[in-house]
Design a protein that fits this description.
With 67 residues, the chain is mainly beta. The protein has one helix spanning 4-10; strands at residues 11-17, 20-25, 41-44, 50-58, 61-65. It has one domain (4-65). It is built from 1 helix and 5 strands, in the order H-E-E-E-E-E.
Length: 67
């Protein structure tokens, strides 16, 4: 499980494209998730409201989105 504390500590930056956000991390080699689906991810929309999000691990990054 990827914890929020780990993400905040190691977050280097992010890119966004087509309603998806890809955070990048200082230490992400061998990134994997032990739970499916990934839980407790959120995104903030243009309306500044926090929305629940879905996420998946792709290589050494996490893809986060809200439909």
């Amino acid at each position: 499980m990827i914890t929020t504390a780990n993400l905040q500590t190691n977050l280097k930056g992010y890119t966004s494209k087509k309603r998806q956000v890809r955070p990048s991390f200082d230490y992400a080699t061998g990134l994997e998730a032990t739970s499916r689906p990934l839980r407790e991810f959120t995104v903030t929309g243009a309306d500044n409201v926090i929305h629940p999000a879905e996420a998946r691990v792709e290589g050494n990054t996490v893809v986060v989105w809200n439909d």
